[in-house]
Design a protein that fits this description.
With about 300 residues, the protein is of the alpha/beta class. It is built from eleven helices and 13 strands. Strand 6, helix 6 and strand 7 form a beta-alpha-beta unit. About 35% of the residues are buried. It is a peripheral membrane protein. It is found in: Cell membrane.
């Protein structure tokens, strides 16, 4: 069942077109990623989805509701964790949860929520004394305190250390397992690859691709790379004449071969025929980052 439908959403700020003709649907129970570089229009898009901004054109339907005209009803169904949510320094974790529970007609059990988020030990701690990861988890808890059917999480793991990021990812999977539909805004490839069932790549306010992480990688082409250090010199022609090989590059002692098909077997067999041992042999699979470069012509990390 479709939980969210966005059709031809356009949003301008003066001369800037932040979102241009954006369309996508999110199925119930899915983790749907919105991935793109800074300024791509991700936050603008989700702010329109949750009714915090009014689109200039297009239509949006969230759980059968119009986010702007039926904002009051939608507020009880959609939990939002937007970038850099801040709370008063001295509010305690349990006080924040208790306060936010009063905003909703179907509040979640505060203790259960803190336990799910791994914050039970910190319930009496003031906000200012929480670590970055704990603040992040509290902001997720507050997005979930109204027992929403849809949660929108924006730049969830920005600024977290690797362990805290992994913990947060596990947490999001647990939340999804409770049946919540999740929109995850991110500019991290690894996060999108790990968590999202499907994702929209957004660049310059437009959806440039929409697919599963594996589907996006496949769209970007089936090229693979094999890298090794040959035990003795050889002529590039040995490999470039193979139909599977598209390019051979050398960097110091290292040889990188790009191509398709069963590239690893083809390359190692050709080398073996000449008794050349391939040392430090590695195969690089196409990543989501490569897919982004192929689809937009530039790197997300730049
Ligand atoms: N309130 C605003 N007024 C004017 N321009 C804005 C406003 N909010 C965003 N923009 C511009 O709209 C474009 C899209 O911004 P948006 O915040 O939606 O992108 P984003 O993909 O979420 O980026 P980031 O990852 O940096 O948050 C940018 O060019 C931004 O400068």
């Amino acid at each position: 069942m479709t939980a969210i439908e966005v059709c031809n959403l356009t949003k301008r700020y003066g001369d800037t077109v932040a979102a241009r003709d954006i369309s996508f649907t999110v199925e119930q129970g899915e983790i749907f990623g919105i991935l793109g570089p800074n300024g791509a229009g991700k936050t603008t898009t989700v702010e329109c989805v949750v009714g915090l901004r009014t689109a200039d054109a297009g239509s949006i339907n969230v759980l059968g509701l119009d986010p702007v005209r039926q904002r009051a009803a939608l507020r009880h169904e959609v939990g939002v964790q937007l970038q850099e949510s801040r709370l008063p320094d001295k509010i305690r974790v349990d006080e924040a949860v208790a306060l936010f529970r009063t905003f909703y007609r179907r509040p979640a059990d505060g203790d259960q929520l803190l336990s799910l988020l791994g914050l039970t030990d910190k319930r009496r701690t003031q906000y200012r004394h929480l670590s970055g990861g704990q603040k992040q988890r509290l902001s997720v808890a507050l997005a979930l305190v109204g027992s929403p059917r849809v949660a929108v999480l924006d730049e969830l793991t920005t600024g977290l250390d690797p362990q805290a990021r992994r913990d947060t990812w596990e947490l999001i999977e647990q939340v999804r397992d409770t049946g919540v539909t999740i929109i995850l805004v991110t500019h991290f490839m690894d996060e999108a690859e790990r968590l999202c069932d499907r994702l929209a790549l957004i660049d310059g306010g437009q959806v440039v691709a929409l697919d599963t992480p594996a589907g996006l990688v496949a769209q970007a082409g089936k090229e693979q790379r094999v890298r090794f250090r040959p035990a003795r010199p050889f002529d590039d022609a040995l490999l470039t004449e193979l139909p599977e090989v598209s390019m051979v590059r050398r960097q110091g002692e290292q040889v990188t071969v790009s191509g398709t098909g069963n590239l690893l077997h083809t390359v190692t067999a050709a080398l073996a025929r000449q008794q050349i041992i391939a040392q430090d042999l590695r195969v690089d699979q196409v990543s989501l980052d490569d897919a982004f470069v192929a689809l937009t012509g530039r790197s997300l990390e730049s």
